[in-house]
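Workshop exercise sheet. Pairs work together: one partner reads the sequence aloud, the other fills in the structure field after running the prediction. Swap roles for the next sheet.
Pair: D.N. / O.F.
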Amino acid sequence: MLLFFLMQTSLVSGQNYAFKVAKLKYNGGGDWYANKTALPNLIDYCNRNLGTNINPEDEVVEVGSSEIFVYPYIYMTGHGNVVFSDQEAENLRNYLISGGFLHIDDNYGLDKFVRVEMKKVFPELDFIELPFDHPIYHQKFSFPDGLPKIHEHDGKPAQGFGLVYEGRLICFYSYECDLGNGWEDQSIYNNPEEVRRKALEMGANILAFACMNY
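Structure field:
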C-alpha cells in the first residue's frame, strides 16, 4: 500500500495539515519548474472552497525518489523535453499502481515528449480521451463540456486524457488547456476573473478526485 500520510498530520508553524502535494522534477531540460504560483494558489482555493486541509507550501519531488510515495497528488508541467531513466520509470509506475495520482498539465510543447516517456512507465497503456461524464469533471464543480480552455495558442480544443490501470484513473493529462497558467497569480497573465475561476474549479475537481480515489 502507498505510504500516504493522509491519516496522519504534519506540524508546520504550529498548524496541523492533512497532507502535502508536490510538483514533479524531471530530467531532459524541460522547465518542470514552470508556473511557480500555480500550486500554492490551487491549494489555497481548495482549502477555502472544498474544506480541505492541505499544507499551503507545495513540495518538489524527483521522479526517481522514494519520497514520491508521500504525496497523493503530483503535478507535472513544462514546455520542453522530458527524459525518464529506467529506474525513474519503474519508480513512477510503482507509485501510480499503488495508489498515487499524476496530473500532467501541458504548458504547450510538452506533448511530444511526455507521451514517449509515459510509454516507458506503462508500455501496455495508451492515453484515452475521457468522456465528459467522467467523475473528474463532476466533483464539486460541474464541467459538462469537459476541460475549460484557459489560453488560446493554436485553435485546438482543450482535451482531457487519462491512463486507466485496472479500472482506476491513475494519470490525468490536460492538453491544449493551460490549467496551470489559470491558477497563477492574476497579475502574471491578466486572465479575466471568470477564466481564472474556471481553471481553479477544474483544478479543485482534479485534486479532489485524486485524493478520494487513491
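Discussion prompt: Residues 1-14 have pLDDT under 50 and may be disordered. What would you look at next?
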